[in-house]
Write a structure and sequence with these properties.
Blueprint (H helix, E strand, L loop, with lengths): L3 H20 L1 H9 L16 E4 L5 E7 L4 E6 L21 H4 L3 E6 L4 E4 L1 E3 L7 E8 L8 E11 L8 H6 L6 E11 L4 E8 L7 E8 L2 E6 L7 H8 L6 E8 L11 E10 L2 E6 L5 E6 L4 E8 L2 E10 L8 E3 L12 E7 L5 H4 L9 E8 L9 H5 L4 E9 L9 E7 L9 E7 L6 E7 L1
Helix pairs in contact: 1-2
Bound molecules: 2-acetamido-2-deoxy-beta-D-glucopyranose.
2-acetamido-2-deoxy-beta-D-glucopyranose binds next to loops.
Length: 443
């Protein structure tokens, strides 16, 4: 393994050099987004403004369910799993580890910063965690119960792992058979009850989920290629719009057969590296990040289909899972509602660091919103049709306080408790981080 790592890095660097001669300005942008020129500048924090959250190992995604004032995340829980088996990073070394180490859904109380692992009922399969989403159970008063949708990256039983000859015999067969799990959770309990699994050939390389109701959700496929050189091309070349978003409507919520009892269709084709997905500002808005382009695509829903309305929300780094922050204290002191964008600040290194338990990845978290003082200030519709967006850095780290980032959620602090200042706790999770953290930031 060790000897292949520098080779891969050299290959990526060589590809960059070649591309820089061929395509010019887009490459300038790509190098910026990958952090080629960037040195991390960790945001200074007082000791009391940093909380390391216990029992949050390798948690990818994070969502705030406002009605129950609860954060939800999905964590791998065992440090070694992620370095042995993680299809989203083309890591297929040890499929057997998933039977031994199992990930879980956690809740985090934003007041006490305490993480609670939910025990599964009705579910014995391995669970390799990635993106999730959470919606209220419509049959209960809001805040009492939720449905949690979660990606699960299982090994493919049709790939023959036993020795080189067997593997060669199944060479064209994907090594992962990823699927979606649906759980039901009654807030305040320590259980997540499995509702059903969903597997389909259109769900190929699932990354993140945006649920629009208890029985309908969107899921991104982040790559077309599961490995190899062309996968690197799709990471680097923004014109490689080879990924998509699919829509699933569950028809039979009690089906015990993963492949039956739902409708599925492509909701949005031809996206570059569709990665994070989230509900937006209104019921008909969904946002999808083109991760390695550093672009957040604002999409409009009509039935199951999505249409990109504009792609003018950008960051100068790769954008992982977005979250919409609805500022509950918007008023005279300003409205800080916007899209919280997390990403690696030096993604160019990920090819070499992601297999190294001792490495680290530097990170950035930004807030994208209409430009204050601009024509569109406070008016999303105006901002929608122009480039009048600002993407402002909220938090930066060199990887020592949090290793890697994949999601961030803002929980606003009542300005009366901060002498009128607008602040928030930013909860930050990392797909390679031993712990999630919460940091108090200025909005
Ligand atoms: C839903 O799934 C259950 C369990 O697999 C099955 O018994 C039932 O017949 C299905 N219902 C419909 C309407 O297909």
């Amino acid at each position: 393994m060790a000897s292949t790592v520098p080779m891969k890095t050299i290959a990526i660097a060589a590809l960059f050099v070649v591309l820089s001669y061929v395509v010019g300005p887009p490459v300038q942008r790509t190098l910026t987004v990958f952090g080629y020129w960037r040195q991390p500048v960790p945001t200074p924090l007082a000791d009391e403004d940093l909380v390391v959250i216990d029992d949050t190992t390798n948690c990818e995604d994070l969502h705030f369910h406002a009605a129950s004032n609860t954060l939800f995340t999905a964590c791998e829980d065992h440090l070694e799993t992620r370095f042995a088996w993680f299809p989203p990073l083309s890591l297929f070394d040890d499929p057997a580890i998933v039977a031994k180490n199992r990930g879980s859904i956690h809740t985090i109380d934003p007041k006490t910063f305490k993480s609670t692992r939910l025990a599964f009922t009705n579910f014995d399969d391995p669970f390799v965690t990635h993106g999730i989403d959470v919606v209220s159970d419509p049959d209960r008063p809001d805040g009492e119960a939720v449905y949690v949708f979660a990606v699960n990256h299982l090994p493919n039983p049709d790939f023959l792992w036993d020795g080189a000859a067997a593997a060669a015999a199944t060479a064209g067969v994907p090594k992962a058979r990823s699927r979606i799990e649906v759980f039901h959770h009654v807030v305040g309990t320590k259980m997540a009850q499995h509702v059903r699994s969903i597997a389909h050939p259109l769900i190929r390389t699932p990354n993140d989920i945006a649920a629009v109701s208890h029985d309908a959700f969107y899921v991104t496929n982040d790559h077309y290629y599961r490995g190899g050189a062309l996968r690197q091309v799709e990471d680097i070349v923004a014109a490689a719009r080879w990924t998509d978003v699919v829509h699933v409507r569950i028809k039979n919520s009690t089906s015990r057969t993963a492949t039956e009892g739902f409708d599925i269709s492509v909701a949005l084709p031809n996206v570059h590296n569709s990665n994070g997905i989230s509900r937006g500002r209104s019921a008909d808005e969904i946002v999808v990040s083109s991760c390695t382009s550093g672009v957040l695509n604002i999409c409009q829903r009509s039935a199951s289909r999505l249409k990109i309305v504009h792609s003018s929300v950008k960051a100068d780094f790769v954008i992982d899972n977005p979250n919409y922050f609805a500022d509950p204290y918007a008023g005279d002191g300003g409205d800080f509602s916007g899209f919280v964008l997390p990403g690696l600040s030096h993604a160019i290194d990920l090819g070499k660091t992601h297999t190294d338990p001792l490495a680290s990845e530097s990170i950035m978290v930004a807030l994208a919103r209409p430009l204050p003082g601009g024509e569109g200030a406070g008016q999303w519709e105006t901002a929608n049709t122009t480039d009048k967006w600002e993407t402002r850095l909220l938090f930066e780290d060199d990887g020592s306080r949090i290793r890697s980032v994949s999601a961030a959620v803002l929980v606003a602090i009542d300005p009366r408790h901060e002498g009128g200042a607008r602040k928030a706790w930013a909860f930050v999770t990392g797909f390679l981080s031993k712990n999630a953290i919460a940091v108090k930031i200025n909005l």
